[in-house]
């Protein structure tokens, strides 16, 4: 009888092991040959409010009211760090995020090796190597002739505008057209032949939960982008005093400030 009981216990344990193995979460199984994509989803906000172009009225840390008519910025040199410390880089992917274009708010990185990723890094701007490369190598969002009204390239300075933030505020003097506009344009990659300010900024963010890339899982990393940080980062910026910035050196405090406007809210790891 005792032997029969022992056999039954063994069979039960074996059966339980089979069930547990068969129910094992696919997220725990990593095939090094598998690849999928990771999408960075940019949610532009003003503090805890959603950014609405043209009609939304907001207040910065100096108590100044403002509306936003344009918010564009380049994202490049994306990399992801795995839980084991391995870094996967995507050096030749460039994205132009535009609040006016919902499709541009999703930046997809393809052929990401399967793994558990705990950190994301990216550059705000266009690196110096690409900026000075032959125009034939600058296609898609980097084609200087493709912007139309976006105007994300300085012909006079042969360089990209990394960040374009425009709108109106009642604290700004009225111009000849009766409007009170502000224009904060940031560019300047340091130059390879000339000595200019380097306004490229790299952002590194921990993921609140790991992005688990699998053959059937293409994670989405949801980022909040708080443009209030443009005004109250390392340097406090007041629109009454700083409302027209096109020069590279003058843009340094703005670049330093907006580096902190990005944060990861959550990561979706939904099976396809």
Shape category:
globular
Straight-line distance between termini: 50 Å
**How many E strands?**
14
Structure classification: mainly beta
Instruction: Give the count of helical stretches.
Output: 3
Ranges where pLDDT stays below 50 over 5 or more residues in a row are 16-26
* Radius of gyration using CA atoms only: 24 Å
How much of the polypeptide forms β-strand, as a percent range? 35-45%
Mean pLDDT: 88
- The helix fraction, in percent, is 10-25%
User: Please, how many domains?
Assistant: 1
Could you give a quick summary of the protein structure above?
With 272 residues, this protein is mostly beta strands. The protein has 3 helices and 14 strands.
Structure description:
It is a single chain. Helix content is 12%, strand content 41%. By secondary structure, it is mainly β. Strand 3 (58-59) and strand 4 form a beta hairpin. The radius of gyration is 24 Å and the shape is globular.
Write the layout of secondary structure elements.
Elements: H1 2-22, E1 35-46, E2 49-50, E3 58-59, E4 65-82, E5 87-98, E6 106-113, E7 115-124, H2 128-131, E8 153-154, E9 159-168, E10 181-187, E11 201-213, E12 220-226, E13 244-245, H3 252-258, E14 262-268
Parallel strand pairs: 1-12, 10-13
Antiparallel strand pairs: 1-2, 1-6, 3-4, 4-5, 4-7, 4-9, 7-11, 8-9, 9-10, 12-14
Pfam family, one: MbnP
Domain Copper-binding protein MbnP-like: 36-243
Protein name: MbnP family protein
């Amino acid at each position: 009888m005792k032997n029969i009981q022992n056999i039954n216990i063994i069979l039960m344990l074996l059966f339980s092991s089979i069930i547990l193995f068969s129910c094992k979460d696919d997220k725990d199984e990593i095939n090094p040959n598998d690849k999928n994509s990771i999408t960075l989803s940019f949610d532009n906000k003003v503090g805890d409010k959603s950014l609405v172009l043209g009609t939304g009225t907001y207040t910065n840390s100096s108590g100044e009211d403002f509306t936003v008519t344009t918010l564009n910025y380049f994202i490049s040199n994306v990399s992801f760090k795995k839980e084991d410390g391995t870094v996967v880089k995507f050096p030749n992917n460039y994205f132009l995020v535009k609040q006016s274009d919902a499709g541009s708010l999703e930046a997809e990185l393809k052929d990401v090796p399967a793994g558990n990723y705990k950190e994301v890094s990216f550059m705000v701007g266009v690196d110096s190597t690409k900026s000075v490369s032959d125009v034939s190598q600058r296609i898609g969002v980097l084609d200087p002739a493709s912007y139309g009204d976006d105007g994300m390239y300085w012909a006079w300075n042969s360089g990209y505008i990394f960040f374009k933030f425009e709108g109106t505020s009642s604290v700004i003097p009225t111009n000849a057209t009766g409007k009170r506009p502000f224009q904060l344009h940031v560019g300047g990659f340091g130059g390879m032949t000339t000595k200019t300010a380097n306004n490229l900024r790299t952002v590194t963010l921990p993921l609140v939960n790991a992005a688990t890339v699998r053959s059937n899982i293409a994670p989405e990393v949801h980022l909040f982008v708080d443009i209030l940080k443009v005004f109250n980062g390392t340097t406090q910026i007041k629109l009454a005093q700083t409302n027209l910035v096109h020069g590279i050196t003058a843009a340094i405090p703005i670049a330093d400030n907006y580096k902190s406007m990005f944060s990861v809210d959550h990561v979706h790891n939904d099976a396809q």
